[in-house]
Amino acid sequence: MPERAPERSASGGAALPGGAKRDPILVADGLRRAFSGIRAVDVDHLEIARGAVTAIIGPNGAGKTTLFNLLSGFDRPDAGTWSLDGKRLNGLPAHRISRLGMVRTFQLTRVLARLTVLENVAVAAPGQSGERLDRALLRRRWRDQERQVRARARTLLQRFGIDHMADQPADALSGGQRKLLEMARALMTQPRLIMFDEPTAGVNPALTQSLLGHVRKLQAEGLTIVFIEHDMDVVMGISDWVVVMAQGRILAEGPPADIVAHAGVIEAYLGRAHGLEKGGATESEASRD
Amino acid sequence: MEFDVILGNAGRAGLGPQAAIFALLVIGLNLHFGYTGLLNFGQVAFMLVAAYGTAITVATWGGSLWLGIPFGLGLCVVLALVLGLPTLRLRKEYFAITTLAAAEILRLLVRSSPATEITGGPFGLQAIAGSFYALNPIAEGRYGIGTFSYTANQLWVMIVAWVLVALAAALVFLLIRSPWGRVIRAIREDEDAAASLGKNVVGYKLQALAIGGVIGGLAGVVNALQQSGVGSESFGSQVTFMAYVVLIMGGVATTAGPIVAAVLFWFLREGVDSFLRQLSEEAWLPDLLADFLYDAGGAVSIALAGIALILLLKSRPEGIFGKRREGAADA
Fold first, then answer.
1. What is the 3-state secondary structure (H, E, C) of A147-191?
2. In the prediction, which pLDDT does B324 show?
3. Domains and CATH numbers, chain B
4. Hey, which of A28, A93, B154, B201 has its CA 20 to 30 A from B294?
């Protein structure tokens, strides 16, 4: 893992919200979103370091998924700006943001149930000219490109160990396989940054390890990864940087070890869950599934 | 009871222009509902707009039929944009309600008295298809056996209509097997997922709506040619609902389903109709029942068709041609 924790030294002290990174890929400023008066997201400044694995943690209702929705164009902020590699993303629709290299997955897997597993991945290929109406009718105008797309899709399915299901409809996949398919599909868009919304929710421990292995490999290939996670073991095991959210705001950020030690975090999240003899954890478990 | 007459009537309807018109309407609807997942409850509006666009060009403005037809089909594209642009971003229920309302509004509009000077109002427009029948290469006369026969003009409309059906089915088939088709099927499955993968969901929906709308418009053009005129009574919302019946009967998201089901639908409908008409003339039938069948035969035959559809869907929920995987109708 060549790129592990490059900003640990760069950011200076840990646990300062909105700290500058040496080489940020994603920068957000003054991002606000309210739902009928309640501030769901209220982020003054956030930078995501290139090539790092950044975890976003926080109690239920902290605004993590809303932040994802805003950044990926699935929801509109009331105020604020954000940019990917210097390119302003404000007001762009979700599909344009995806094409710029920032792809997201969903908390509940969203496979295209009645398409085959291979089609699920192939449809994500960028720049397939046969998707244009004026070229779709004549097969020879997209056949060669389609052959490459399918070959790449098969390679990805092999990488995630679901190539034996390639010609099955996606709704024949198990819950864990669906998570793998979503990862393969996201990768097919050739992104620079992937946002995973709870990649390990509802997944058995063995598959969790396999998913984390895939995430590490993606990082080794130079991708930036941001993920929302509730499982602190996962957060500690894989992330270079942790952002803690509570009530829409960024409470603290820093390397995982520092975050655990940070009192504010323990109070807002860890403490509440641990202090109540896992009562709080059970509650969050239930509402998440 | 003359079964050859019943069979002849049924066969004539099954292969006739009315079945071809329905096949076109349903092929367009299949692109909307079956492949893109658009809940279009106003497919008949595309038929109306194309038929009236053609007829108004000829009868009201004195233009050529060959200008009127592309004008009518062009109006279908306009209608698709007007219906789609404001609603396709919203949840699909809004689109469904808008299409249903738009179809009714258009029908009431063309039949309203103030519109009489343009659309003929309640009287419709007549004598528009002269230059179409002037091209008829078939010699005068009746072709066929018994009641299963057509005049030369009917035959001419039929040939053109079924050729259009074949072309429309081929067009949809080619589009669906292309990467374009894969995107619209992905949108049907999950819009947000498709958007997250970089697909312009609204743009693709508009394209699908316009193409399926123009195919539905062809049904309107054929209808106008066949009647050599238009009347608002041909464009009630029940036409859209019957199109859904045919679509689900044949199998949603299939190529052959809409065509075979349209033929079968009109064959059964006319067959049952003809059977009931004959039954009402049987001497052994009590007068009360005979009168009822004579007066309400049409309603009874639709009810019987409904029962037949329920029985079919009970044994094959995915329709005649549907694969269980892709065909199960859900919205």
1. HHHHHHHHHHHHHCCCHHHCCCEHHHCCHHHHHHHHHHHHHHCCC
2. 61
3. 3-327 (1.10.3470)
4. B154
